[in-house]
Amino acid sequence: MKQENINKYLASLGVASRRKAASLVEDGRVMVNQKKASVGQLVSDQDEILVDNQRVGRNIKLIYLMLNKPKGVVSTVADEHERLTVVDLVNLPIRVYPVGRLDQNTQGLILLTNDGDLANLLTHPKFEVPKTYQALILGNIEPDQLNKLRVGVYLKDGRTAPAQVEILTEESHTTLLQITLYEGKNRQVRRMLGSLGLNLLNLKRVAIGSLSLDSLAEGKFRRLTATEVANLRNYSLQQSIAF
Asked: Domains in the chain and their CATH numbers?
């Protein structure tokens, strides 16, 4: 029976990073076999582990959800300011976690699961799965601005990687862009557009890897099919091999 440090164990499930998992333990929010866990405690799949009174573990039924996150909802399990979270919207008896984040004012596709292995594949720092956004900007975009978005712009944390950018619609006062990123810098689309003096009116994520938001209504969620989960997993692995 393999045992491992509880911080590492919780991180492998996607519950939190190792550092955050240690904080959960220190705060008394983790129970092991009906007793409060201790930092550095060894656990295995045979133990009953609760985080905030919800059971977690590799033997728990795996759940995969896609949610169309509205503006104003935060992409966390819980919020110290008592704002509505993505987990509040799905309201399941089994604990799930958002895969990555969308900032509070960005809407669209976000995944939630209790499968730490898949979450790690989708958020791996070196093999980032493509994420596609639709950005509505004020006015029109100049050819040189479009080219800079495609080849990379300079931000405080470095130059962005090449991105796929196309104009979907162009009206007299607004332009709708579709932007596909292959990396995951914080608030990247907003910062890229802002660095070029473009005024962002609305931002929506419409795809992650092979999975598209399609007609899922805002604020609603659905379970992924077995085929969709397999495609996401295979897509992530293929990206890693290609890299």
From this structure: 4-56 (3.10.290.10), 64-115+214-242 (3.30.70.580), 131-208 (3.30.70.1560)
User: What's this model's pTM, rounded to 2 decimal places?
Assistant: 0.80
103 is catalytic: yes
For residue range 11-32, list pLDDT tens digits in order.
Answer: 888 787 788 888 889 999 999 9
**Six-digit token pair at 3?**
């045992």
Q: What percent of the chain has pLDDT over 90?
A: 58
27, 79, 103, 214: which is the annotated catalytic residue?
103
For 69, other C-beta atoms within 10 Å of its C-beta total: 27
pLDDT tens digits, one per residue of 146-204: 999 999 999 999 999 999 999 999 998 999 999 999 988 889 999 999 999 999 999 99
How many C-beta atoms surround the C-beta of residue 219 within 10 A?
12
Of 243, 12, 10, 15, residue with least CA distance to 129: 243
